[in-house]
User: What shape does this take?
Amino acid sequence: MNDNVVETNSVKAWVLASRPKTLTGAAVPVMIATALALRDSVWQINTMPVVLCFLFAFIMQIDANFINDYFDFVRHNDDETRLGPKRACSQGWITVGAMRRGITVATVSACLVGAPLIAVGGGVDGCLWSAMRCVLFPLYHTFVLRCDG
Assistant: This one.
Protein backbone atom coordinates (compact mmCIF):
# COMPACT_ATOMS: atom_id res chain seq x y z
CA MET A 1 0.00 0.00 0.00
CA ASN A 2 1.28 3.46 -0.91
CA ASP A 3 1.63 5.76 2.14
CA ASN A 4 1.07 8.82 -0.05
CA VAL A 5 -2.40 7.69 -1.11
CA VAL A 6 -5.23 9.38 0.73
CA GLU A 7 -8.63 7.72 0.41
CA THR A 8 -11.59 10.03 -0.12
CA ASN A 9 -13.24 11.14 3.15
CA SER A 10 -10.93 8.90 5.20
CA VAL A 11 -9.68 9.70 8.70
CA LYS A 12 -6.29 10.50 7.17
CA ALA A 13 -7.95 12.99 4.80
CA TRP A 14 -9.70 14.75 7.68
CA VAL A 15 -6.51 14.90 9.75
CA LEU A 16 -4.65 16.43 6.81
CA ALA A 17 -7.51 18.89 6.19
CA SER A 18 -7.41 19.99 9.82
CA ARG A 19 -3.80 21.17 9.24
CA PRO A 20 -2.36 20.05 12.59
CA LYS A 21 0.66 22.35 12.24
CA THR A 22 -1.65 25.37 12.59
CA LEU A 23 -2.92 24.29 16.02
CA THR A 24 0.04 25.91 17.76
CA GLY A 25 -1.34 29.23 16.54
CA ALA A 26 -4.52 28.45 18.46
CA ALA A 27 -2.71 27.18 21.56
CA VAL A 28 -0.27 30.03 22.15
CA PRO A 29 -2.84 32.75 23.03
CA VAL A 30 -4.56 30.36 25.45
CA MET A 31 -1.21 29.47 27.03
CA ILE A 32 -0.34 33.16 27.46
CA ALA A 33 -3.76 33.94 28.94
CA THR A 34 -3.44 30.96 31.29
CA ALA A 35 0.01 32.10 32.43
CA LEU A 36 -1.32 35.60 33.12
CA ALA A 37 -4.32 34.20 35.00
CA LEU A 38 -2.04 31.99 37.08
CA ARG A 39 0.18 34.94 37.93
CA ASP A 40 -2.73 37.19 38.87
CA SER A 41 -4.48 34.53 40.97
CA VAL A 42 -1.46 33.55 43.07
CA TRP A 43 -0.97 30.37 41.02
CA GLN A 44 -4.42 28.88 41.63
CA ILE A 45 -6.99 28.63 38.87
CA ASN A 46 -9.90 26.41 37.90
CA THR A 47 -8.57 24.07 35.22
CA MET A 48 -11.92 23.34 33.53
CA PRO A 49 -12.18 26.76 31.80
CA VAL A 50 -8.56 26.38 30.65
CA VAL A 51 -9.30 22.98 29.12
CA LEU A 52 -12.46 24.33 27.47
CA CYS A 53 -10.54 27.32 26.10
CA PHE A 54 -7.94 25.01 24.55
CA LEU A 55 -10.65 22.80 23.04
CA PHE A 56 -12.55 25.81 21.72
CA ALA A 57 -9.40 27.32 20.20
CA PHE A 58 -8.40 24.04 18.56
CA ILE A 59 -11.87 23.38 17.16
CA MET A 60 -12.20 26.93 15.81
CA GLN A 61 -8.76 26.72 14.18
CA ILE A 62 -9.77 23.47 12.51
CA ASP A 63 -13.10 25.01 11.50
CA ALA A 64 -11.29 27.99 9.96
CA ASN A 65 -9.02 25.60 8.06
CA PHE A 66 -12.03 23.65 6.76
CA ILE A 67 -13.82 26.86 5.72
CA ASN A 68 -10.70 28.13 3.96
CA ASP A 69 -10.18 24.80 2.19
CA TYR A 70 -13.81 24.62 1.08
CA PHE A 71 -14.20 28.18 -0.21
CA ASP A 72 -10.80 28.28 -1.89
CA PHE A 73 -11.84 25.16 -3.78
CA VAL A 74 -15.32 26.32 -4.81
CA ARG A 75 -13.93 29.75 -5.82
CA HIS A 76 -11.14 28.05 -7.82
CA ASN A 77 -8.36 29.70 -5.80
CA ASP A 78 -6.53 26.37 -5.44
CA ASP A 79 -4.81 25.88 -8.77
CA GLU A 80 -1.34 24.78 -9.85
CA THR A 81 0.14 28.21 -8.94
CA ARG A 82 -0.86 27.91 -5.29
CA LEU A 83 2.01 27.64 -2.81
CA GLY A 84 2.03 25.65 0.41
CA PRO A 85 0.70 22.29 1.49
CA LYS A 86 -1.92 20.46 -0.52
CA ARG A 87 -5.56 21.18 0.25
CA ALA A 88 -8.09 18.44 0.87
CA CYS A 89 -10.90 19.47 -1.48
CA SER A 90 -8.63 20.38 -4.39
CA GLN A 91 -6.81 17.04 -4.07
CA GLY A 92 -10.10 15.11 -3.94
CA TRP A 93 -9.33 13.83 -0.45
CA ILE A 94 -12.63 15.22 0.86
CA THR A 95 -15.75 15.78 -1.21
CA VAL A 96 -17.40 19.20 -1.21
CA GLY A 97 -20.53 17.85 0.51
CA ALA A 98 -18.50 16.11 3.19
CA MET A 99 -16.49 19.30 3.81
CA ARG A 100 -19.73 21.29 4.24
CA ARG A 101 -20.87 18.73 6.81
CA GLY A 102 -17.44 18.88 8.47
CA ILE A 103 -17.71 22.67 8.75
CA THR A 104 -21.14 22.29 10.33
CA VAL A 105 -19.92 19.68 12.82
CA ALA A 106 -16.88 21.77 13.75
CA THR A 107 -18.92 24.96 14.20
CA VAL A 108 -21.59 23.24 16.31
CA SER A 109 -18.88 21.49 18.36
CA ALA A 110 -17.17 24.81 19.03
CA CYS A 111 -20.48 26.32 20.14
CA LEU A 112 -21.12 23.40 22.50
CA VAL A 113 -17.62 23.62 23.97
CA GLY A 114 -17.79 27.41 24.19
CA ALA A 115 -21.24 27.62 25.82
CA PRO A 116 -20.00 26.75 29.34
CA LEU A 117 -17.32 29.42 28.97
CA ILE A 118 -20.05 32.04 28.61
CA ALA A 119 -21.46 30.96 31.97
CA VAL A 120 -18.00 30.97 33.59
CA GLY A 121 -17.02 34.28 32.00
CA GLY A 122 -20.13 36.06 33.14
CA GLY A 123 -20.26 38.64 30.36
CA VAL A 124 -22.79 37.14 27.98
CA ASP A 125 -22.72 40.07 25.56
CA GLY A 126 -18.92 40.04 25.26
CA CYS A 127 -18.75 36.26 24.97
CA LEU A 128 -21.44 36.13 22.30
CA TRP A 129 -19.69 38.88 20.34
CA SER A 130 -16.42 36.93 20.53
CA ALA A 131 -18.18 33.74 19.44
CA MET A 132 -19.73 35.52 16.46
CA ARG A 133 -16.30 36.81 15.43
CA CYS A 134 -14.86 33.30 15.67
CA VAL A 135 -17.49 32.00 13.27
CA LEU A 136 -17.54 34.99 10.91
CA PHE A 137 -13.82 35.80 10.60
CA PRO A 138 -12.91 32.71 8.56
CA LEU A 139 -15.61 33.72 6.08
CA TYR A 140 -14.38 37.33 6.12
CA HIS A 141 -10.83 36.12 5.46
CA THR A 142 -11.96 34.00 2.55
CA PHE A 143 -14.21 36.55 0.87
CA VAL A 144 -12.72 39.95 1.75
CA LEU A 145 -9.07 39.63 2.75
CA ARG A 146 -8.14 36.89 0.31
CA CYS A 147 -6.37 38.13 -2.80
CA ASP A 148 -8.02 36.97 -6.03
CA GLY A 149 -4.91 37.61 -8.11
In short: The chain has a mean pLDDT of 84. Residues 11-145 form one domain. The chain has six helices and no strands. The two ends are 39 Å apart (CA to CA).
